[in-house]
Amino acid sequence: MAAGTLKYMILSLFAVLALGLSTPAHADALDNALRNGQVGETARGYVAPVKRPSAAINRLVNDINARRRAAYKDIAKKNGLPLQKVEAVAGARVIQRAPKGTYYKDNSGRWQRK
């Protein structure tokens, strides 16, 4: 992958992750769920319930992941990259930038807390 393509992809991912939630309510709900340990970030760039989720958490996770997946597919298509590559870059970046206390799934699939 060319350096320019990677740079564009990373910038696009930042935009997706920062602004990809269309409403402040979605962003607030996700922030609260992350802060409360109800959901965590995964290495594939998606969120997942950490514990047995309520119906509201399931809806939030499904909605956020659908929005992320659509954005990742768009980035992959525009850059001629496999979707899995975009997901992996997004996952690494979001976990790296997550605030202390956020849950994330490590490479072995276990939940860890930053």
Radius of gyration: 14 Å
Question: Helix- and strand-based class?
Answer: alpha+beta
Strand content: 5-15%
Main beta sheet: strand number and arrangement? Answer: 4 strands, mixed
Q: Which residues sit in consecutive blocks of at least 5 with pLDDT less than 50? A: none
Strand line-up across the major sheet: 2-1-3-4
Helical segment tally?
4
Number of domains: 1
CA-CA gap between termini: 30 Å
The overall pLDDT, averaged over residues, is 84
User: What fraction, in percent, of the residue positions are helical?
Assistant: 55-70%
Pattern of helices and strands: HHEEHHEE
- Number of E-state strands: 4
Would you write up a description of this structure?
With about 110 residues, this protein is an alpha+beta fold. It has helices spanning about 5-20, 25-35, 55-80, 85-95, and strands at about 40, 45-50, 105, 110-114. It has one domain (about 5-114). The chain contains four helices and four strands. Strands 2-1-3-4 form a four-stranded mixed sheet. Helix 2 packs across helix 3 (about 55-80) and helix 3 packs across helix 4. The chain is globular and about 40 Å long. The chain starts with a helix and ends with a strand.
List the helices and strands and how they pair.
Blueprint: H1 3-19, H2 24-35, E1 39-41, E2 47-49, H3 55-79, H4 83-97, E3 103-105, E4 111-113
Parallel strand pairs: 1-3
Antiparallel strand pairs: 1-2, 3-4
Short description:
This protein is of the alpha+beta class and 114 residues long. The protein has one domain. 61% of the residues lie in helices and 11% in strands.
